[in-house]
Design goal:
Strand order of the largest sheet: 4-3-6-5
CATH superfamily: Aromatic amino acid hydroxylase
Distance between the termini: 45 Å
Shape: globular
InterPro entries: ArAA_hydroxylase, ArAA_hydroxylase_Fe/CU_BS, ArAA_hydroxylase_sf, Aro-AA_hydroxylase_C_sf, Aromatic-AA_hydroxylase_C, Phe-4-hydroxylase_mono
Order of helices and strands: HHHEHEHHHEEHHEHEHH
Structural class: alpha/beta
Cofactor: Fe(2+)
Largest sheet: 4 strands, mixed
Enzyme class: oxidoreductase
Number of domains: 1
Bound molecules: phenylalanine, fe (iii) ion
Strand content: 5-15%
Family: Belongs to the biopterin-dependent aromatic amino acid hydroxylase family.
Helix content: 40-55%
EC number: 1.14.16.1
CATH topology: Phenylalanine Hydroxylase
Number of strands: 6
């Protein structure tokens, strides 16, 4: 696989990873030897800054599971995390060079393998990076894979992705990923908390998503979500809120094929559209 793949997402730049390291399924060995002292320090500083503001903003399940990533001082070895993760929910982390195409991505998730980018951002990108790096993928996504219900949801999403690929419905399904796994909010103990990895790994978006009066927050509704475009380079203008991971799992258990059928040809909602529900 010499060539960087064209991936989902709306970025026009080619991804930065070295895809010549990857196997057929896009996984590679975690290039642990490549990490410099500065890389580990970047991870440590990102971890410190973000873990300091989780209380009251992040989902309780996320806060509880975060220490299971291991020592915050160094980028963890994925195999070390796997010893704990596999025991908890039978998920495992696999290293990838960066974003990968949809179908291999769905296949990994359907097999309870979570792809984690192995490289880390440069110090210049400390506050913001468009592509996922090891900090976003590990810190943002992995703690909730220790939660049995959420872990099952992500596997089901992978299976649903393979099905959607056969139905030409990936764009609709990927919006559900975006507005749940990446940017989801959950109501907990009477308040809003973040469970989406894009929020949880962002210094600025975490307090914004939970507290700012600017964005719109709607209850998660399949059709509204699947019709809503999203921005990859600004804070979200719309968030969708769930009441529990059980609710998320149950809401998405139904067959999506008829929904895709119905939504085809229906108008989309802009990322900041204020109309609450489908017309
Ligand atoms: N139920 C969905 C389908 O039939 C699959 C799915 C499950 C998608 C969970 C996303 C999340 O396509
Ligand atoms: Fe992500």
């Amino acid at each position: 696989m010499g060539q960087a793949p064209v991936v989902y997402g709306q970025s026009s730049r080619p991804p930065r990873g070295d895809y010549s390291r990857a196997q057929e399924d896009y996984t590679c060995a975690q290039n642990f030897a490549a990490y410099t002292a500065a890389d580990h320090d970047t991870y440590h500083r990102l971890y410190q800054r973000q873990s300091a503001q989780l209380q009251g903003l992040a989902s309780e399940a996320f806060i509880q599971a975060l220490p299971l990533l291991g020592a915050k001082e160094r980028i963890p070895r994925f195999d070390d995390v796997n010893e704990r993760l596999y025991r908890a929910t039978r998920w495992e982390l696999v290293a990838v060079p960066g974003l990968i195409p949809e179908v291999p991505f769905f296949s990994l998730l359907a097999n309870r393998k979570f792809p984690v980018t192995d490289w880390i951002r440069t110090p210049q990108e400390f506050d913001y990076i468009v592509e996922p790096d090891v900090f976003h993928d590990l810190f943002g996504h992995v703690p909730l894979l220790f939660n049995p219900v959420f872990a099952d949801y992500v596997q089901r999403y992978g299976e649903g992705g393979l099905k959607a690929a056969g139905l030409g419905a990936c764009e609709m399904l990927s919006r559900l990923y975006w507005y749940t796994i990446e940017f989801g909010l959950i109501r907990e103990q009477g308040g809003l908390r973040a469970y989406g990895a894009g929020i949880l790994s962002s210094r600025g978006e975490l307090p914004y998503a939970v507290h700012s009066p600017e964005p719109q927050r709607l209850p998660l509704e399949l059709e509204r979500t699947m019709r809503t475009r999203y921005k990859i380079d600004t804070y979200q203008q719309t968030y969708f809120v769930i009441d529990s991971f059980e609710q998320l799992f149950e809401l998405t258990a139904q067959d999506f094929a008829p929904i895709y059928e119905r939504l085809r040809g229906q108008p989309e909602f802009a990322a900041d559209a204020r109309e609450p529900l489908p017309a």
